[in-house]
Amino acid sequence: MLAEILSQLTNRMKKYLPIFTTNNLTIDERWNILRQFIENWYDFEIPDTKFESQLIELENSLNLKLPKCIGRFFILASQLQNMGHTYTYSGQKSNKFSSIFRDCLDISFLEKHNALSLLIQAEQDTYWAIKRTDFKEENPKVYSYFLNYESDNNDFELYGSPFFSVTSFVLNHILIYLNNCSSFGMLIENVELFREKIKSSFENHIFYDGMELFEAENLIAFINEDLFEKGNFNFVLHLKENREIKNLPHTIIDILENKEGGWTSNRFNEFPR
């Protein structure tokens, strides 16, 4: 039954080709690339609904003139929330925003931190927010605020290094929870050596908007620093379901066969047999 569902799913999928190929982009172009990535990976078109009145209503409720970057994020999130989504295997009903971002849209002011949140984690223990002092920036950094479980007042505290920019945060979040694919991740001991080993296996390798990305047909991967363990780096690879594992470059197959630890999902759970 699952094999039949997967076969029907892959037959409807479009080919994904590298899209993050240049850093010579304006902020508006970066937002457009994010939209294109979502559309190309998930095989649907995002409607160009403006949501201008809802944005004004949000600003009035916060008594704030929101930075353009937050407006762009709010509109994208609203457009995706307005689209229904049915999970392939469970049949559960949701919306495109929830299926892609996993966590909850929460644009609210964090008084204690003088910051405006974008998302709150589904478990309600992490906010991602922009500091008000950075509102004048065109594409400001995004900070993480973790719930202090030892606090009597349920306080959230600043944690870790900030994300490079709002667009970088959005891309990172999408890639962390990317679906419509089979995935695996692992800890890297030596980033430089690992990079040299794998980069020729991809059509595109780029340091894009604060992230290190690798792309090929129906394939995207990235290297990022662990939020909790500074100095530790992870490699994550996503293979769209319309490309066979056996067609991956030999270097990637070798890594899969010999990696110790890490995690896998979907078809990679059965590899190697």
What is the CA–CA distance across the termini?
A: 20 Å
Question: Which geometry do the CA atoms define?
Answer: globular
Helix content: 25-40%
Element string (H = helix, E = strand):
HHHHEEHEEEEEEHEHEEEEHE
Whole-angstrom Rg: 19 Å
Number of strands: 14
Structural class: alpha+beta
Average of per-residue pLDDT values:
93
Number of helices: 8
Reported for the largest beta sheet, the result is: 6 strands, antiparallel
Estimate what percentage of residues fall within beta strands. Answer: 25-35%
**Low-pLDDT regions:** none
Description of the structure:
- The protein has about 270 residues and is α+β, with helices and mostly antiparallel strands.
- The protein is built from eight helices and 14 strands.
- The chain has helices spanning about 1-10, 25-40, 50-60, 70-80, 95-100, 165-175, 190-200, 250-260, and strands at about 85, 95, 105, 110, 115-120, 125-130, 140-145, 155-165, 180-190, 205-210, 210-215, 220-225, 235-240, 265.
- The strands form three sheets. Strands 3, 4, 5, 6, 7 and 8 form a six-stranded antiparallel beta sheet that branches. A six-stranded antiparallel beta sheet has the order 10-11-12-13-9-14, with helices on one face. Strands 1-2 form a two-stranded antiparallel sheet.
- A hairpin with a 7-residue loop joins strand 12 (about 220-225) and strand 13 (about 235-240).
- The longest helix is centred in the N-terminal third of the chain and has 16 residues, at about 25-40.
- The protein is globular and about 55 Å long.
